[in-house]
Design goal:
single chain, 320 residues, mainly alpha, globular
Length: 320
C-alpha cells in the first residue's frame, strides 16, 4: 500500500511540474521571437529617419557607424572582450565585411533619397538572391530547380520595378545606386558567411568600426565632415543608439536561439514593415506594376531562403 501511495505521489508531482516547464520553455522561446521581430521592425524604420535628416547620406552613415560601433564595442568588452584568436584567424573577412557594410549603407541611404524608401528597399533585397545565384561558384552549393525558380521570380520582379522607374521618369541614377546597394549587400553576405569562429555580436562591432573609418575617408573626399542642424540630432541619436546599438543586440540575442528557417522567415518583417511605414508615414505610393514587382521580389527571395540547400555546408548568414 505504501508503495502504491509513493508511486501515486511521484506521478502527481510529475504532472504538476511538466506543464510549468513547458510553459517556461514556451515563454522563453516567445521572448526570443519577440526580440528578433522587434529588431526587424526597428531596421524597417531606417528610411523614415533618413528622410527627416538634412545632412548627406554618407554623413548619416558616418555618425551611425560611429555611435553604433562604440556601443557594440563597449557591450562586447563588458561581456568579456573579443576572441583574439578567432579575430586574428578571420581578420581578412572581417575587414572586407566592414568595407562592404559601410559602402552598402551609403548606397542604400542615397537610393532612399534618389528614388524613395519603398523602391530602394525592394531593389536592395535582391542582394540575397544574387548570392544564391552564384552559390555554386562561391560555396560549391548545388543550385536546385526550386532555387532557380526563386531566382527567376526575383528577376521578373526586379524587371517590373526597374521598368516602372525608367518609364515613370524617375532618376536612373537612383536605380543604379539601389542596384549598387544590393551588390554591396550581397558582398557582405558572402564575406560574413566566411566568418565561422568570431561571434555574431563581435563581428557586428568590428565591422561597424571598420565601416566608420571607410566612410570617414569617403566622406572627407566627397561632401566633408557632417555639421548637423539641431533638428537632426534626435534622429542621429535614434539611428545610432536604437536602430544600430539596440537593434543589433536584440537581433543577435534572438538569432542564437531560433531555427534557421524561423530566422529566414522573420527577416522579411524588415522590408515589409519598411513598405508599410513609408506608405503610412511618408505618404509614398506605388503603382500596380511596382506592387507586383514587390510581391515577386520578396516572395522569390523568401522562397530561396526557405528551400533546402544543395549542400550540407550551409552556415548562418549575418544580416546587417
Amino acid at each position: 500500500m505504501r508503495d502504491a501511495f509513493a508511486r501515486l505521489r511521484v506521478r502527481v508531482i510529475c504532472l504538476k511540474n511538466t506543464p510549468n516547464k513547458d510553459m517556461n520553455r514556451s515563454s522563453i522561446r516567445g521572448l526570443y521571437y519577440g526580440m528578433y521581430i522587434l529588431a526587424m521592425l526597428i531596421f524597417g524604420t531606417n528610411g523614415l529617419l533618413v528622410a527627416h535628416m538634412s545632412i548627406a547620406s554618407s554623413q548619416i552613415v558616418l555618425l551611425r557607424t560611429l555611435i553604433g560601433g562604440l556601443l557594440l564595442t563597449c557591450i562586447v568588452l563588458l561581456r568579456g572582450g573579443f576572441d583574439r584568436e578567432a579575430v586574428k584567424a578571420e581578420w581578412k573577412w572581417l575587414l572586407f565585411g566592414g568595407i562592404a557594410l559601410g559602402l552598402n549603407w551609403v548606397a542604400l541611404f542615397e537610393a532612399y533619397r534618389m528614388l524613395n524608401v519603398s523602391l530602394a528597399t525592394l531593389i536592395y533585397y535582391v542582394g540575397p538572391i544574387l548570392v544564391l545565384l552564384f552559390s555554386p561558384l562561391l560555396f560549391r552549393e548545388r543550385l536546385t530547380t526550386g532555387k532557380l525558380a526563386a531566382v527567376a521570380i526575383v528577376a521578373v520582379g526586379l524587371g517590373c520595378i526597374s521598368g516602372s522607374i525608367a518609364l515613370g521618369g524617375m532618376r536612373i541614377e537612383g536605380l543604379l545606386t539601389a542596384i549598387a546597394s544590393a551588390l554591396f549587400y550581397a558582398s557582405l553576405i558572402v564575406f560574413n558567411k566566411r566568418i565561422v569562429r568570431t561571434g555574431g555580436l563581435q563581428t557586428a562591432a568590428i565591422e561597424l568600426d571598420v565601416a566608420f573609418f571607410v566612410v570617414l575617408i569617403y566622406t572627407s573626399f566627397t561632401v566633408g565632415l557632417p555639421h548637423p542642424a539641431m533638428a537632426d540630432l534626435p534622429y542621429i541619436a535614434i539611428i545610432g543608439m536604437v536602430n544600430t546599438g539596440l537593434a543589433y543586440l536584440l537581433y543577435f540575442s534572438g538569432l542564437q536561439k531560433l531555427s534557421g528557417q524561423s530566422v529566414a522567415l522573420i527577416s522579411y518583417v524588415d522590408p515589409v514593415s519598411a513598405l508599410i511605414f513609408s506608405a503610412l508615414l511618408l505618404r509614398e505610393s506605388m503603382t500596380a506594376v511596382q506592387w507586383v514587382g514587390a510581391v515577386l521580389i520578396l516572395g522569390g527571395a523568401l522562397l530561396g531562403e526557405l528551400l533546402p540547400s544543395g549542400s550540407q555546408n550551409n552556415k548562418t548568414i549575418t544580416d546587417d
